[in-house]
Design a protein that fits this description.
The protein is an all-alpha fold. The protein has 8 helices and no strands. The chain has one domain: Endopeptidase. Chain P, domain 1 (Glutathione S-transferase Yfyf (Class Pi), Chain A, domain 2), CATH 1.20.1050.40. The termini are far apart.
């Protein structure tokens, strides 16, 4: 059975069809699109052609678009209209995305291509936007541990995994606290200016 979350949305402006999405579709969709994105990354890293801005930096920027869309849908939904079920799914998805991110940033073959393009940037005819993308891509990999030794890379992966779960838990705790907040107002003067119809909803 096809999963609508792994397909292109046939909707105005490609808006997410929330009425056709069910929670049990998220985890399988993430697993499928992570696998698909990993193949895209491998194709870039294993390209037999000499590294260039187009076949490395630009190709990397356009990779994983469907996964990005899915992530935006899920985490915005989890933030705006969460439930115990969505929060449990988030606990399963977060480590998968962290592991995927670590695989990319610590892919030596891929970083070698990026570094080659970066080191020869003075000889490339790049416009301002391309130069910025190249610089941000290179810095992003360096800051994510591309230059670390194997032992430190493993340690960083562990830290990132733990941090992603703790950040997720913090967000869920903050959301639960916000939803549980209650303020009892007895002085009607404090409500002056609020339409009566609104007041009746909270009476």
């Amino acid at each position: 059975m096809n999963n609508i979350l792994t397909e292109k949305f046939n909707t105005p402006l490609s808006a997410a069809p929330f009425d056709k999405i069910s929670n049990d579709q998220f985890l399988p969709a993430f697993k499928e699109l992570i696998s698909e994105s990993e193949k895209e990354i491998d194709e870039i890293a294993e390209n037999n052609e000499a590294p260039s801005f187009e076949n490395t930096i630009e190709a990397l920027a356009y990779s994983g678009e469907k996964l990005d869309v899915l992530s935006n849908i899920f985490f915005n939904l989890n933030s705006a209209e969460t439930s115990d079920e969505l929060q449990q799914i988030a606990q399963e998805i977060s480590p998968l995305l962290t592991e995927f991110s670590s695989k990319i940033s610590q892919n030596e073959q891929l970083f070698s291509r990026i570094k080659t393009v970066h080191d020869s940037s003075d000889n490339l005819q790049l416009n301002g936007e391309q130069k910025m993308l190249l610089e941000e891509t290179y810095k992003g990999f360096v800051r994510s541990g591309a230059l670390l030794n194997d032992e430190d890379k493993d340690r960083l992966k562990t830290i990132n995994r733990e941090l992603s779960l703790k950040s997720l838990q913090f967000g869920q705790n903050a959301l639960a606290s916000t939803n549980a907040y209650f303020k009892h107002i007895t002085d009607k003067e404090a409500l002056r200016g609020i339409p009566e119809a609104i007041l009746q909803q909270y009476a």
